Amino acid sequence: MKHIFRKIPNQIKYLIGNFLILYIFLFLFRFIFYLFFFKTNLHVPRDIEKAWYIGSKFDLRLTLIILLPVFFLIIFFRKKIFSKMIFRKILLSYFFIIEAGLFILYVTDFGFYNYLGRRLDPVVLRFVNVQDAGTNAAMVWESYPVVRGLLIMVIVMTILYRLHRWAYRHHAIRTAAKLAADPAPTRKGSFGIFAVIVFILMAGGIYGNFAYYPLQWSQAMFTGDEGITSLGLNPVINFFSKLKFREDSFDINATRKYYPYIASYLHIPHP
Fold it and tell me: How far apart are CA 198 and CA 207, in angstroms?
């Protein structure tokens, strides 16, 4: 096992290290949700475990989607990833921006769930408009610990930045040491094999199902309980997957056409 691990290129190890950092980051948010926000009327351990399982697959999908650009960057610039300073800046900036955005979305999700009892969805965009910006900002300031949240965000982002910086520096040093010990270039075939394996694993993780259809947010709704459903969802994926439904689909002409039938069915005395 150790012999196989040693053969893995440092670029792939770097990708695996960042995968662990990101996945644990998302897992901690799920754990916080479970500890402080999760409520259910169906105290069935098997259902809760299934919700955790489905939720962890959504977290895995999000982690792998975030890592896809890093994977392709490694594929196309394998030899330069650890030798050019520009790639260090690109990678550290990318992870910092993505994780800062995730932090904000997850914290917004906590507030959204606490207020409406469901995970973050495009309804939140109704609160983001120029006309009501002052009112909404005042409501957030008065209702939530904004200063404390910003302080926690600074601490968390500092820790994450240092972890990603350590991962980059660690594998850059190991790559330089390997080149110094063996100046001959590594075989492309070996790197290609590992790259194909990683790509297949990432594609499988993003697909998320051992079935014909990929993992869908509706699979989290295997019970009628809103709490268990919420535990099985990932708020970021849930938000973006429902964006296409954000516009109201009210059709005035269809309403006028079918109103008499509905009024008759409901026995409305004065339609």
Answer: 14
